[in-house]
Structures are given as C-alpha cells and as structure tokens.
Amino acid sequence: MEGGWERARHISRRVARGAADAGRATVRATKATAGGTVRATKATASGTARAGKATARGARGVGKAARKLTYAGGAGRTGLGRLIELSAGNSACDALVTVALASTVFFGVPVGEARGSVALYLVITMVPFALLAPFVGPILDRFRSGRRYVMAGTLFGRGLLCFAMAAAVGPGDLPTLFIGALGVLVLSKAYNVSRAAIMPSVLPADITLVSANARVALFTLVSAGVAVPLGAGLTAWLGSAAILRVAMVGFLLLGVVAVRLPRHVDSPDTEEEGAAPRWRTLLKVGPAVAEAVWANVAIRLFSGFLLFFLLFLVQDEAVPWLAAAEPWARDPFFDIPKTIALLAGAAGLGGLAGAVVANWTRNNAPQLIVLVTLALTAVTAIVTAIFFGVWTALLISLVAAFAQELGKLALDAIVQREIGEEVRSSTFGVVEAVLQLAWVFGGLVGLVLSLTESSLAGLVALAVALTAALGWLLISRRKRVRATKAKLRRQRAEAPADAAPGHPSPGHPSPGHPSPDHAATAHPSTGHASPAHTAPDDASPGYAGPGSSDEVSPYDRTVPNGEQPPRKEKLDSTKPLTNPNG
C-alpha cells in the first residue's frame, strides 16, 4: 500500500514539475512573442517613417525643381512664376471635374444613347458661348484694375459649383449636373481670357510671348496629365461626389493664391469717363490677328471632328483592325479599350510636343507658325484618308493635338502683341468663343458622319475642308501683300513729284519735323533710325497695331538726326523688369 502512495506522490511531483516547466515555457514564449511583436511594430513604424521621410524629400525635390523651372529667366521677379503655378493648379482641378462628370454621365451608356447624350452636351456648351461671347470680354476690360479679383472670382465660383454638383451626384440630378458643368466651363474660359490678357504685364525682359505662353501650357498639360489618372483611381475608390469635393477645396485654395498675385497684374483704367465701350469682332482685329484666328478655327474644326468621329467608329468596330468578319482574323492586341487608350495617349503626347516646340521656336514669326500648323494638319489628313489604319489613326491624333496646341500659342502671342491693353480681354473673349464654337461644330459633324461607319468619307471631307481653308488663307495673304507693296510703290513714285524746296513731302520729312505717318524710330541698341510701324493697307477701322497703347515708351519716340532716345539714368530696383516691347 505504501508503495502505491509513493508512486502516486512521485507521479504528482513529476506532473507538478512538468506543469511548472510548461508555465515557464509559456511565459518565455509569451515574452518572446511580445518582444517580437514590439520589435516588428518598431520596425514597421521606423520603415513607415523612413518611407514617409523619403516621400517628403522626393516631394520637396520635385517641388524645388518645378519652382526652379517656373521661376527661371526672371519669371519669379515679375510674377510669371506664380501665374504658371496658379494655371497648373487650375488645370489639375478642371481635370478632376472632367473625370468626375465623365464617370457620372457618359460611362456605362450604350453607343446609341451615348451619341444623343454627347450631342446634347455639345449643343448645351455651344449656346452659352454664342450668347455670352459679346459680353465676357468687355466686362473683363471694364475691370482691368482688378484682374486678380476677377481671376479669383472665377475660381471661387467653380468651387461653389463643384459643391452643388457633388450634392447632385447621389440622387442623379442630371439637370443640375449639366448646369454646373456649363458654369464650370464658362468660368474656366473666363479665367483663360484673364490669364492671357495679363501675360504681357508679367513678361520678363528675357522671355518672349510665345515662350511664356508655351511655358504656361506645358505646366498645365503636365498637371492635367497627372490629375487625370489620379482622379480616375480616386473616383473608382471614393466615388464622383468625393472627387468633386476635392476639386472644390482646390478651387477655393487657388482663389486665395490668385488674390495674392503681384499688384502690377492690375492695370489702371485709362479710358475717359462716359466713353462708349469698344467692341471687338473678327472684322475689327486687323488682318494679322484675323488670319491667325481663321487658321485656328480650321484646326479646331479638325480636332473636334476627329475626336468624336474616331471615337464612335472604334466603338462601332467600323475601323479596319476591328472590322474583320471572323474573330480569328482580328488583331488580338488592338481591341476597343486599348485602341481608345492609345488614341488618347497619342493626343496627350501631341499636346506636350506642341508646347515644347512653341518654347523652342521662341518668337520667330508666329504668323508663319500658324500657317505651317494648318498645312501640317491638311497633309496628315490626306495621308490618313489614303492609308487609313491603326498607325495612321494614331498619327493623325498626335498631329491634331500638336497643331491645336502650337497654333493656339502662336495665336495668343499675336493677339498679345497686336491688340492694345484696353480691348485685349474683349479680343480674347471673342477668340475663345469662336474657337470653342468651331470645336463644338466639328464634333457635331463628326458625330453625324460616324453614323455612315465609313472612315474614307469622313477623312476625305476633312482633308478637302482643310486644304480649302489653307488655300483661301494663302491667297488672301498674297493679295494683301501685293496691295501693300503697290501702295508703297505709288507713294514712292508720287513723293519726288510733290516735293518742293522748303516744303518737304509727307513721304520725305525734314530732319527737324518728322512726319507722323513715316516717323523715324531709333533702335534702342544701335541708334540707327528706322521707319515706324504703320497699320497694313487693308486693316479695319478698329485695328490696333503692335504696341498700341495710351502711353509712349522711350523706344517709340521720334528723334531727329537718328539720335538715341533719352533713357533713364538708373533702373528702379523695386519695379519688376518686364519686357517693354511685350
């Protein structure tokens, strides 16, 4: 009996020791697990912190590089750098609104219904420009002394419209969405008009107008290109309403930035009180501006037509690489989504190339640049109509975006150079409205011709229209040049016959009394006298020549005997060194 008790006590002691060992092992395992968890948490936290610091350093590096580019060439001193940053932010917010509205209205709609929705959208965007075009420009000209606040008002207004559209996304209130999109579009065009009108005010002495416009366009295209995929991803994750609210916050912050632009952006109102407002039409902008506008109208028609024509041809599978009767004969790579993505990528690349080329060309003959871009589009349309395929479709998409960007930048430079500041906003308002209407009309024509499902018919019609527009502009330009040369020859032939001793003719003024029509202007660097610029022979009554303004700069004064015009003894270091001949 005692042996049994001993064995039981021995077993119980061994069980107790095993339990104690298990408890100690559990404690050690728990401590090890806790230590490992703590170490893993610390490693994760430190890794996250290092990644955050690296991201912050990368963001700061990108920001510094962007600031160095935007402020280069004296742009930071005159305010051009701030204007570029403001325009880049404005473009990014517009891109977010576009992505949010596209995912709300157009995606997931059958092809037949999408044509009707797109046509309705195009008509709705055409009506306000036809109605508001005569008023936007003069209104902006009336507020030249407060252009910063006008730009800020366009940004604040779009922020409020984004808030209203975000509230309308949930219940699917399409009228509110269309009205809001319309208001955003109109205010965006008003911002672009104001921005283009103040460009000469912030132009540094070492940068030309074409280069400054190209720099703004380049940064706006890059910011929009970054915002579109980011907005698409956030829309798929958070929804359209959230993206519209993000755009609202962005517009409100940009409005504050617009108010803080340099004060010299605002120009004083120099018109006399009670004077009738000056209205601008295409008949009152002078031959140089009118020629550039008509060339850009043809390019915008080409761009709008091509966008909707190719889009619906691809969706209807009416293009050669998608129209094979047998599924096995079709190209396995170029399906509908990939084709649309490639066309969009080619268009984006063409726009960037246009901005880069405009910056490279500097200010060399913007009139010639406009005509060359129109000729390039006509030749590309002809080649595409003959050899239509996937590669020519990509080529024509790239050329269309390239020509639209480069032609518009050259047109802006011509308007900024040829039109006086007192009516510059009115001119830009008319130009923007005409170009928008041309793009919309081209898009409607492309929608209609896409119903034929024939790529040859649409492209041939497009090539004929572009060639006719180019021929008409070249013939008109040739006639104008011949008329001007004939007039100069008549004046030179009549001048010796009318001249008499002691009574100099208008074409040959005496050294002490230069004629107002043929004044000698001293070149600022050489001092040699040269004939002053006069308006062309066929200029309309409202034509404003280059550098026309109410004030006369030292370089525009007439001086006798080819002497140097008076210059300031010392530059004022507190004022921005803007280009006097901008």
Cα-atom radius of gyration: 33 Å
Strand order of the largest sheet: 1-2
Shape: elongated
Oligomer: single chain
Helix and strand run: HHHHHHHHHHHHHHEE
Q: Please give the largest β-sheet.
A: 2 strands, antiparallel
Going by helix content, strand content and strand pairing, the class is: mainly alpha
Beta-strand residue percentage: under 5%
Helix % is 55-70%
CA(first)-CA(last) distance: 119 Å
Unreliable residue runs: 504-582
Mean pLDDT: 75
Report the total helices: 14
How many DSSP-defined strands?
A: 2
What can be said about this structure in brief?
By secondary structure, this protein is mostly helical. It is 70% helix and 1% strand.
Tell me what you see in this structure.
- Strands 1-2 form a two-stranded antiparallel ribbon.
- Strand 1 (520-522) and strand 2 (529-531) form a beta hairpin.
- The termini are far apart.
- Helix 5 packs antiparallel against helix 6 and helix 9 runs antiparallel to helix 14.
- Helices cover 70% and strands 1% of the residues.
- It has helices spanning 2-70, 75-78, 80-105, 111-142, 147-169, 174-198, 209-238, 240-259, 287-315, 336-361, 366-386, 390-418, 424-450, 455-498; strands at 520-522, 529-531.
- With 582 residues, it is mainly α.
